[in-house]
Design brief:
By secondary structure, the protein is α+β, with helices and mostly antiparallel strands. The chain has a single domain, classed as Rieske Iron-sulfur Protein. The protein has one helix and nine strands. The chain has a three-stranded antiparallel beta sheet, with no helix packed on it. A three-stranded antiparallel beta sheet has the order 2-3-4, with helices on one face. The structure holds FE2/S2 (inorganic) cluster. FE2/S2 (inorganic) cluster (FES) binds next to loops. FE2/S2 (inorganic) cluster binds at residues 80, 82-85, 101, 103-104, 106, 119-120.
């Protein structure tokens, strides 16, 4: 009987932790039709609800989204892997067809790989994604495998 009483109490005590983990794995509809994704990276902004214990807040997310030469959707994090500044597609006239970080002249190729000899030492993170009813859903940015 004591175990029967304890189980709900333990669940109540750790519930916010479980909620936070469940929320972080969610994929969110970012209001972009897959038909509108081209081979040119476009900036996509959306909000996600973050639950931390009993505190809920909305945080803004951004991705650079395009289709690669095989038609596969690529969604890259705009956060520079050097020191965290915002990276833009063709952010410098000097480096067309690249992502550019203005903080220390960081550069990445279109697939997010860091250009050797520039400050970033690893590629841009990649968002997990899914397509449902023709709409793009994005989840958490993750380091590229092998990076
Ligand atoms: S923060 Fe991007 S190059 Fe340094």
């Amino acid at each position: 009987m004591a175990a029967g009483l304890l189980a709900p109490m333990i669940r109540f005590a750790i519930d916010p932790v479980l909620q936070s983990q469940e929320k972080s794995g969610d994929l969110v509809n970012v209001n972009l039709s897959v038909d509108d994704i081209t081979d040119t990276p476009q900036r996509v902004d959306w909000e996600v609800q973050q639950v931390d214990g009993w505190y809920e807040s909305n945080i803004n997310r951004t991705a650079w989204v395009y289709k690669d030469e095989n038609g596969e959707i690529v969604a890259l994090s705009p956060i520079c892997t050097h020191l965290g500044c915002f990276v833009s597609w063709e952010g410098s006239e000097d480096y067309p067809n690249e992502f550019y970080c203005p903080c220390h002249d960081g550069r990445y190729y279109k697939d997010g790989t860091n250009v050797p000899g520039t400050p970033p030492l690893r590629p841009l993170d990649v968002y997990e994604h899914a397509v449902e009813n023709g709409m793009l859903y994005l989840g958490e940015p993750k380091p590229r495998e092998g990076a």
